[in-house]
Amino acid sequence: MAATMSRNKFINPRHLAQPGTFCRLPSGYGVVKVCVSGAAETGHCGLDAFDKAREVGREIARQGGIITTGATTGFPLYAAMGAKDESGFSIGFSPASTEREHVETYKLPLEYIDVMVYTGFGYAGRDLLLVRSSDAVVIGCGRIGTLNEFSIAFEDRRPLGILEGSWDTDELLKHFIDSSHRPNDRIIFESDPKALVEQLVEMALKDKVETNLVYDNHDGWGGTGKNDQVIL
Predict the structure, then answer these.
(1) How far apart, in whole angstroms, are the C-alpha atoms of residue 209 and residue 105?
(2) Are strands 160-163 and 136-139 parallel, antiparallel or unpaired?
(3) Per-residue pLDDT at 42
(4) CA distances from 81 to 57, 76, 182, 192, 226 (A)
(5) Measuring CA to CA, how many Å separate 99 from each of 117, 127, 161?
């Protein structure tokens, strides 16, 4: 029987369930966070946009990852919904500074988000924090905000998965990448959400193993890790 909330709203019990597993490293440090970027308004995206977005979210949860989004409507919302279908965990990065501003000023939803980070930095600032708080980025059907998140991930050399579909975002990004004359072997083009997420998680885990060191920074030592004792 579905769980019931206020105003007679029925929700899937799996959306309330605790996450079954997280994609942790063998050392116990770190959980893979996968950002899903896409259009808040999806009228131009085609009929398969919502299904593919939802399957991306489901696969992130199945892989034991955490989904991160811009806490908006459209493509990211359906991806977060998909993650909750598999009892996944979601983090939203809001452009607003408070919950009231998020709902009343930006007209953004609260549904399907377990932890909301109120950045207070507007859309552009939110995009930067969202990408840099994530280990990999999925780019779906999108507009200028999605291109901004792509650019940040590209510059930071985050593992990037470009989801191909009935939209033209993937074709535009191929053109941009070719025109940039900056080779990048960390970009995947894939039409299958499952295959895309699997490859991104594998790349992100490899990055964590190679670069996510923990240092014994007792009092008197710096926080940079330089000349400090590696304890991992």
Answers:
(1) 41
(2) parallel
(3) 86
(4) 7, 9, 35, 18, 42
(5) 10, 18, 31
Q: Tokens 């919950």: give the residue.
A: 99
Q: Which structure tokens are listed for 87?
A: 């009892």
Task: Please say if the pLDDT value at position 219 is more than 80.
Answer: no
Structural tokens at position 7: 């105003």
For the chain, where are the alpha helices, taking DSSP H only? 49-62, 74-85, 99-100, 122-132, 144-156, 169-180, 193-211
Q: Is the pTM of this model over 0.85?
A: no
The Cα 222–Cα 219 span in angstroms is 8
Structure-token pair, residue 105: 């000023």
Domains and CATH numbers, the chain: 12-211 (3.40.50.450)
Q: pLDDT digit string (tens) for 42-74?
A: 888 988 899 999 999 999 999 999 999 999 999
Q: Which residue's structure tokens are 């708080």? A: 133
Give the residue, 154 or 232, on which the prediction is more confident.
Answer: 154
What Cα–Cα distance (Å) separates residue 116 from each residue in 21, 33, 70, 152?
Answer: 21, 14, 10, 21
Q: Which of 9, 11, 202 is nearest to 1 (CA)?
A: 11
CA distance 121 to 106: 12
